[in-house]
Q: What sequence folds into this?
C-alpha cells in the first residue's frame, strides 16, 4: 500500500470520530479494524450520550441503530435480600433525546460506515501487531508481514492497545482496570415497557452497588434495549488477581437477588460477553503523544465506567484529528508539533471530568463492604427523615443530613447529571427528593 | 425464577466464534506447577483454564476465549502469554 497521511488503529467510537475529523480536513486516512466488522469485538453496557455525536453527525437519529431513548435513570443500593432504589424520570429527556441505549456491535459498524462515506479507507479483519519505527520515530504500522507507512499513527485501539504499548506511551494502569461480565437477555418489548413502567420506545438505565460485590468495591448495571436487557457486573482486576472474587459466580448471585430476579423473569440468554475496561483516565497529558504517534479513546485512558462512557473517547478522537491537522500545516509530526493535542484537550474540560471520574471510582473501590452498608443505612435513615416533615430541598446547606446526601450521593453517585444544564440538575434534585418519600424501600431488620 | 440456569459452557454456546487454528494463548505449564493460588481458574469468564489434579497439568482452550484480556494481567508466575487472535478471527459479538 502507498504511504498515507494517517493510519488510525481501531474502528471504535474514538477511531471513527478521529477518522471522520481527519477526512473532513482533507487528510488521507486509513482506518484499521481487527474484527470482521467494526464493533464485533466490543463489550459495553452502552448508553450513548449524544452531545458529541450530534457535533459530528447532527442527523444521526435518522439512521443510527439506536435502541431506546433514555427517560429513566436509577441508582440501586442492593442488600442481601433488600434494596433501595432512587429512580429519576425526566420527561424532557425524551424531547431532548440526550441519551440512547444501543449495541456497540451495531453502532460501531454504522459509525465506521459513516467514516467510509467521508472518504476514509476502512480495512476490516486486520490486526496491527506493532509499530514501524525509524530512529525512534513512529513511521507506520506492521500487520503481520505487511506494513503501512504513514506520517502519523493514531492509536484508538482500546484498553489493550498495541499502539500505546509499542510506542512506549503505555502507563501501567492495571490498578484502574476492571473486569466486566455481561449478559444480554431476550425479553419482549411490551414486557420491558410494562415491567419498567416505560412508554413505547422509552428506556431506563439502572446502575448500582452493594450486594453481591460490596467486599471488592464492585458495581453493576442493568439497561433496557428494544427487545432485550443488558446486565453486567464489574470488579477491580486487583481483586481478581488476589483471588478474592469469582465474578462468574457473583453474576449468578446478582441475578438471583429477589429484586433483580423480578426484573429478569421470563428472559432468556441471548449472548454472554466479557471485557476489561479502564476507569477514570490518565492524568499526564504529555504521555498521549510522541514522535509520529498520538493516542485517543480508551487507549489514552478516555473512558470511565462510572462516568459517561463513550463521549470522552469520541471527543478525544476529534481533538486528535485537529492536532494532526495542525501538525500537517506545520509539516512536522514530531512530539513538539503534536503537543497542541494536550492544549486542545484541556480546552474541552475533559481532563478535569476524567479526574473527577477517577476520584469517584477510587471512592467506590476504597469503600469496604461495611462502609457501603453503613452508607446505605444512612440513606435509609435519611428517607425516614424526609417522611417526617417539610424540608427546603432546594438549599442543601440547610440540613446537615441533606448536605451529606447532596455531597456523598447525588453529586458523586449520579455524575451523569452533571452533563446537563444547572437548571436540569436542580430540577432533578428536587424530583429526586420528592421521590425519596415514595422510594421503594424494604428495610432489613 | 429465570427460565433456565446456564453453565458457562451453555453460555459460550450462545457466542459466535471464528476459530483460528493458531492459538493466541500460550502457557508455560512448568511454571503452573509452582503456582499455589492459580487465580486464572476463577478469573476467566469463559472458564478456559482448568487444572487436572491427577495429571498435575494446567489445561486451557483458546477457542472459547472472549478476548477480555484478564489473564494477561493476573498471572503471578508470568506464565500466560496472551495476544489478540489474528485479524478477523476470534470472538464475534453480535450484541456487544
A:
Amino acid at each position: 500500500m502507498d504511504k498515507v497521511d494517517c493510519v488510525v488503529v481501531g474502528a471504535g467510537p474514538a477511531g471513527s470520530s478521529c477518522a471522520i475529523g481527519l477526512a473532513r480536513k482533507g487528510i488521507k486516512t486509513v482506518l484499521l479494524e481487527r474484527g470482521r466488522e467494526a464493533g464485533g469485538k466490543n463489550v459495553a453496557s452502552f448508553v450513548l450520550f449524544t452531545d458529541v455525536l450530534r457535533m459530528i453527525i447532527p442527523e444521526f437519529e435518522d439512521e443510527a441503530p439506536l435502541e431506546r431513548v433514555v427517560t429513566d435513570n436509577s441508582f440501586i443500593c442492593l442488600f442481601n435480600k433488600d434494596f433501595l432504589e432512587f429512580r429519576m424520570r425526566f420527561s424532557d429527556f425524551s424531547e431532548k433525546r440526550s441519551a440512547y441505549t444501543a449495541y456497540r456491535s451495531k453502532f460501531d459498524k454504522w459509525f465506521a460506515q459513516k467514516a467510509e462515506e467521508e472518504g476514509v479507507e476502512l480495512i476490516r479483519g486486520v490486526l496491527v501487531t506493532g509499530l514501524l519505527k525509524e530512529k525512534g520515530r513512529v513511521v507506520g504500522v506492521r500487520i503481520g508481514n505487511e506494513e503501512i507507512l504513514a506520517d502519523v499513527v493514531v492509536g484508538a485501539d482500546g484498553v489493550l492497545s498495541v499502539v500505546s504499548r509499542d510506542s512506549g506511551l503505555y502507563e501501567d494502569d492495571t490498578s484502574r482496570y476492571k473486569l466486566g461480565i455481561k449478559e444480554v437477555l431476550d425479553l419482549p418489548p411490551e414486557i420491558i415497557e410494562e415491567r419498567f413502567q416505560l412508554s413505547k420506545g422509552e428506556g431506563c438505565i439502572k446502575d448500582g452497588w452493594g450486594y453481591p460485590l460490596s467486599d471488592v468495591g464492585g458495581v453493576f448495571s442493568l439497561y433496557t434495549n428494544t427487545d432485550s436487557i443488558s446486565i453486567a457486573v464489574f470488579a477491580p482486576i486487583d481483586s481478581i488477581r488476589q483471588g478474592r472474587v469469582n465474578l462468574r459466580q457473583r453474576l449468578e448471585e446478582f441475578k438471583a437477588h429477589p429484586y433483580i430476579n423480578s426484573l429478569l423473569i421470563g428472559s432468556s440468554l441471548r449472548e454472554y460477553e466479557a471485557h476489561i475496561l479502564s476507569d477514570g483516565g490518565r492524568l499526564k497529558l504529555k504521555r498521549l503523544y510522541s514522535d509520529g504517534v498520538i493516542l485517543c479513546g480508551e487507549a489514552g485512558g478516555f473512558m470511565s465506567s462510572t462516568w459517561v462512557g463513550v463521549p470522552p473517547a469520541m471527543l478525544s478522537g476529534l481533538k486528535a484529528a485537529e492536532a494532526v491537522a495542525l501538525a500537517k500545516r506545520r509539516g512536522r509530526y514530531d512530539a513538539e508539533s503534536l503537543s497542541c493535542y494536550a492544549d486542545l484537550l484541556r480546552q474541552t474540560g475533559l481532563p478535569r471530568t476524567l479526574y473527577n471520574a477517577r476520584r469517584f471510582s477510587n471512592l467506590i473501590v476504597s469503600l469496604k463492604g461495611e462502609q457501603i452498608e453503613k452508607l446505605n443505612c444512612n440513606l435509609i435513615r435519611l428517607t425516614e427523615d424526609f417522611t417526617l416533615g417539610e424540608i427546603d430541598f432546594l438549599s442543601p446547606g440547610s440540613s446537615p443530613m441533606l448536605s451529606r446526601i447532596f455531597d456523598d450521593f447525588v453529586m458523586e453517585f449520579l455524575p451523569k447529571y452533571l452533563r446537563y444544564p444547572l437548571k436540569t440538575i436542580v430540577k432533578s434534585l428536587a424530583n429526586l427528593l420528592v421521590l425519596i418519600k415514595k422510594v421503594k424501600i424494604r428495610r432489613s431488620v | 425464577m429465570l427460565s433456565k440456569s446456564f453453565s458457562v459452557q451453555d453460555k459460550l454456546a450462545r457466542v459466535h466464534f471464528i476459530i483460528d487454528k493458531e492459538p493466541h494463548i500460550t502457557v508455560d505449564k512448568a511454571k503452573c506447577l509452582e503456582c499455589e493460588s492459580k487465580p486464572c481458574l476463577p478469573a476467566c469468564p469463559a472458564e478456559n483454564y482448568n487444572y487436572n489434579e491427577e495429571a498435575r497439568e494446567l489445561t486451557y482452550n483458546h477457542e472459547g476465549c472472549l478476548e477480555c484480556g484478564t489473564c494477561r494481567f493476573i498471572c503471578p508466575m508470568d506464565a500466560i502469554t496472551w495476544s489478540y487472535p489474528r485479524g478477523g478471527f476470534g470472538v464475534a459479538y453480535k450484541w456487544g
